[in-house]
């Protein structure tokens, strides 16, 4: 048997060229999303069989217009292509272009080709050549670009086999540079570069000189030489401008002989749609309407599968309990593991629906129109039009939302966006809101449509957005960061979304949520179970103690067990913890049991309900079928004899959860995205402090 | 005059760019002296601007557009 050959292929291209469609065609579902070490940029990889014993590992790099990075995403492209010591360094680069804007796509192509790495050009959307009146002379283009050019339609699945064949024969590819830019820019300067770094392609050395960040794959003696060149900042900037101008001259020359476009054939559907979708009034009306549909479906559609999941897990827990022997391990499995996993899966419908809408809006090209009409408004809050996407995504989960702020060019605008996104009402708050609203707000409908509980939930959403915008204004005033703001966004052509692309995106993102955030939630429910099931001497002597105490009273067995369990919970580790913080939260209307739930939900908000379920089910006799809601309803304040969850304490809890920063996952992501502990700590202290004060005021007024 | 002073639907040829005041990215997208630029639309509050240049449909802010001088055609 022959040994299998593996090669690495990097897909590079402008955004909106259908690069991801091509990636999906080459790899099918045979792909995985990982992370680049140290940063949170998604790294998409997949396998593609070229022959029986020849396989290509395809790496889908983030979309970029140039190899000179302006954002964290684009730095990945740069690093992957210049660092030949990295395990991801490709054997072949496939530059994905599209028929209509070949000129701009070739800019990136010529840059990469000049690094002297085997590079092929894929011209995607070839099925539209005729309808757009475009003719491409592929043979001449191949000669001019010194490489293979493949016409592909990722959607119609044409040309994919041709591309595979080229990859299979990758050794035959020409490695020569295509644009000898150095002599045109400044001969002398580039000769010095070439002589200083004889082992590097000249253009690669030039790129390394222009970049400001640490190049850890280059040894220190070479570093020093690079630093010497880097000092000439003015000159570098001027030369970069010259490079852009000169590259386009070469490209225009090449395309003049190989590319013909008949302008008359182009349709103006785009123009018409643009006029409506970015209209002064209709633009906003349409956007508001779409938002309404999104939120409506997140609540109504998602509630159906969520009910199934809820009852499914309840049945599973019952089944496990009845079929396994009674004991600690069964308890752990039912109360820790099963309820923990249930607590994660319950969010999947909402998150998947939200991701579905975001993916649809992005695929169709509508999202960039929203960015366009919202930019001026968002700038008043120190943010960018591009901040709209994170703020919408934030209603599903702050973690992907913080990551999606990455394409905001200005650091200041990006930072403000990241800092305020956690105020938006993420789906983790919904179960907390839902249960408390059900307890304290009457289920009444006015005028046929206005349900009081629904209105309360809506008010909490508005409150979340309001808090985000107000704190943005505050940060905008306070933050002393020099604003080198610039803003460029391409408004791509409208497209009918591809079912395959959309479903893969939703699947990948949902999976990432389940395994990312889910791990934390599961771990916490298990830890909680342990903390609630152990507690040292007092805990272990509970039975003895209660029996002694109640020796004179005649109690039924179940009453006795109830008393023991309650005593145990109070003396478990988590009970002790709750008691410690009780003095601090009493002014907010909470007791030590709610205190336990608060502590555990500092890791993730949704744990609140699960914790209360654990606390109350640990405290009941195990036979009771009362739902958690009923249990909370019946819970009394032993001092006053009033209900524990009344209007005052309920409102105080709602407000606390609206503002508090209770998500370790988000804090971790903010740390990675801002590369500093300063900002996540500011969020934790600022948001939670605000939450405490507002909850305190509301309880003291309402009680 | 500069791009921001064009009316919707008007076209101009870029004659000068304040290179140190606009991002390299814009040049790399093909917004260069000698190119024709068309103002397609303005956002509802007259900023950003929606332009076509070098075959690309781009939105840029007025502050950037002010740095790109054009001759109307």
Could you please describe the fold and organization of this structure?
The complex is a heterodimer of chains A (703) and B (73). Chain A is of the alpha/beta class. Chain A folds into three domains: 1-265, Rossmann fold (3-Layer(aba) Sandwich); 282-478, no CATH class; 521-702, no CATH class. Helices cover 61% and strands 9% of the residues of chain A. In chain A, the strands form three sheets. In chain A, strands 2-3-4-1-5-6-8 form a seven-stranded mixed sheet, sandwiched between helices. Chain A has a two-stranded antiparallel sheet with strand order 7-9. In chain A, strands 10-11 form a two-stranded antiparallel sheet. Mean pLDDT of chain A is 84; it is low at 618-626. Chain B has a single domain, classed as SH3 type barrels (Roll). Chain B has 73 residues and is mostly beta strands. The N and C termini of chain B lie close together (12 Å). Chain B is globular, with a radius of gyration of 11 Å. Chain B has helices at 24-28, 62-65, and strands at 11-17, 36-42, 49-53, 56-60, 68-72. Chain B has two helices and five strands; from the N terminus they run E-H-E-E-E-H-E. Chain B has a five-stranded antiparallel sheet.
Secondary structure elements and their pairing?
The complex is a heterodimer of chains A (703) and B (73).
Chain A lengths: L4 E9 L5 H9 L3 E5 L6 E10 L2 E7 L11 H11 L9 E7 L3 H13 L4 E6 L9 E3 L1 H8 L3 E3 L8 H9 L12 H16 L5 H9 L9 H11 L2 H26 E3 L7 H9 L4 H42 L4 H18 L2 H17 L1 H14 L8 H6 L4 H7 L6 H10 L8 H12 L4 E2 L3 E2 H27 L9 E3 L8 H35 L2 H5 L1 H8 L7 H15 L1 H13 L6 H9 L6 H13 L8 H7 L12 H13 L4 H11 L3 H25 L1
Parallel strand pairs in A: 1-4, 1-5, 5-6, 6-8
Antiparallel strand pairs in A: 2-3, 3-4, 7-9, 10-11
Helix pairs in contact in A: 3-9, 4-9, 6-7, 6-9, 7-8, 11-12, 11-13, 12-20, 13-20, 16-29, 17-19, 18-28, 19-28, 20-26, 22-23, 24-25, 25-26, 28-30, 29-30
Chain B lengths: L10 E7 L6 H5 L7 E7 L6 E5 L2 E5 L1 H4 L2 E5 L1
Antiparallel strand pairs in B: 1-2, 1-5, 2-3, 3-4
């Amino acid at each position: 048997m022959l040994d299998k050959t593996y090669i690495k292929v990097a897909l590079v291209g402008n955004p909106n060229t259908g690069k991801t469609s091509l990636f999906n065609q080459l790899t099918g579902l045979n792909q995985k999303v990982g992370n680049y070490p140290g940063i949170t940029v998604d790294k998409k990889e997949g396998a593609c069989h070229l022959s029986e014993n020849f396989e290509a590992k395809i790496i889908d790099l983030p979309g970029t217009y140039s190899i000179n990075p302006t954002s964290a995403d684009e730095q990945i492209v740069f690093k992957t292509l210049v660092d030949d010591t990295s395990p991801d360094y490709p054997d072949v680069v496939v530059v994905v272009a599209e028929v209509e804007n070949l000129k701009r796509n070739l800019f990136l192509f010529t840059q990469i080709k000049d690094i002297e790495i085997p590079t092929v050009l894929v011209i995607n959307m070839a099925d539209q050549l005729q309808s757009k009146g475009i003719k491409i002379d592929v043979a001449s283009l191949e000669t001019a670009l010194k490489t293979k050019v493949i016409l592909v339609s990722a959607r119609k699945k044409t040309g994919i086999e041709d591309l595979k064949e080229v990859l299979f024969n990758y050794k035959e590819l020409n490695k020569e540079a295509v644009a000898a830019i150095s002599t045109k820019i400044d001969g002398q300067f580039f000769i010095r570069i070439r002589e200083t770094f004889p082992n590097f392609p000249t253009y690669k050395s030039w790129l390394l000189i222009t970049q400001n960040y640490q190049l850890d794959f280059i040894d220190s003696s070479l570093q020093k030489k690079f630093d010497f060149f880097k000092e000439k900042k003015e000159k570098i900037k001027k030369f970069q401008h010259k490079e852009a101008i000169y590259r386009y001259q070469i490209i225009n020359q090449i395309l003049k002989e190989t590319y013909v476009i008949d302008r008359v054939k182009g349709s103006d559907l785009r123009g018409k749609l643009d006029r409506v979708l970015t209209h002064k009034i209709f633009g906003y009306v349409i956007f508001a309407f779409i938002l309404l549909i999104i939120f409506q479906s997140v609540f109504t559609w998602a509630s159906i599968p969520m009910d199934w999941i809820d009852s499914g897990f309840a049945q599973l827990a019952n089944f496990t309990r009845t079929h396994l022997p009674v004991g600690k391990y069964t308890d752990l499995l039912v109360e820790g593991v099963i309820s923990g996993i249930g607590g994660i899966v319950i969010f999947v419908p909402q998150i998947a629906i939200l991701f579905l809408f975001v993916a649809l809006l992005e695929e169709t090209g509508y999202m960039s129109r929203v960015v366009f009409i919202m930019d001026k408004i968002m700038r008043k809050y120190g943010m960018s039009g591009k901040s709209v996407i994170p703020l919408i995504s934030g209603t599903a989960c702050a973690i992907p939302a913080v990551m999606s702020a990455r394409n905001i060019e200005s650091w200041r605008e990006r930072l403000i966006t990241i800092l305020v996104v956690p105020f938006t009402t993420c789906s983790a708050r919904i179960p907390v809101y839902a249960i408390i609203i059900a307890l304290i707000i009457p289920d009444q409908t006015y005028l046929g449509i206005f349900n009081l509980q629904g209105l309360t939930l809506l008010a909490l959403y508005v409150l979340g957005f309001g808090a985000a915008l107000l704190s943005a204004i505050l940060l905008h005033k306070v933050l002393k960061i020099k604003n080198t703001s610039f803003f460029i966004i391409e408004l791509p052509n409208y497209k009918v979304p591809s079912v395959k692309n959309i479903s893969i995106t939703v699947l990948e993102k949902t999976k990432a949520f389940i395994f990312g955030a889910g791990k934390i939630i599961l771990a916490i429910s298990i830890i909680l179970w342990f903390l609630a099931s152990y507690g040292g001497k007092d805990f272990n002597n509970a039975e003895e103690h209660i029996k002694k105490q109640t020796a004179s009273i005649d109690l039924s067995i179940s009453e006795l067990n109830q008393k023991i369990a309650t005593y145990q919970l109070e003396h478990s580790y988590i009970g002790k913890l709750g008691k410690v913080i009780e003095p601090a939260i009493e002014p907010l209307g909470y007791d030590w049991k709610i205190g336990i739930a608060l502590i555990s939900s500092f890791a993730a908000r949704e744990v609140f309900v699960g914790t209360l379920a654990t606390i109350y089910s640990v405290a009941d006799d195990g036979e009771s079928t009362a739902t958690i809601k009923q249990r909370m309803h019946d819970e009394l304040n032993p001092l006053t004899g009033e209900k524990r969850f009344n209007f005052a304490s309920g409102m105080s809890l709602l407000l606390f959860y609206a503002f508090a920063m209770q998500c370790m996952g988000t804090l971790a992501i903010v740390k990675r995205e801002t590369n500093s502990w300063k900002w996540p700590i500011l969020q934790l202290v600022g948001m939670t402090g605000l939450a405490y004060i507002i909850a305190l005021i509301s309880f003291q007024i309402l009680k | 005059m500069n791009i921001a002073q064009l009316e919707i639907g008007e076209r101009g040829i870029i004659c000068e760019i304040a290179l140190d005041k606009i991002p390299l990215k814009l040049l790399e997208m093909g917004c260069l002296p000698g190119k024709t630029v068309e103002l397609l639309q303005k956002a509802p509050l007259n900023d950003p601007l929606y332009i076509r240049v070098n075959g690309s449909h781009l939105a840029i802010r007025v502050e950037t557009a002010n740095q790109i001088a054009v001759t109307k055609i």
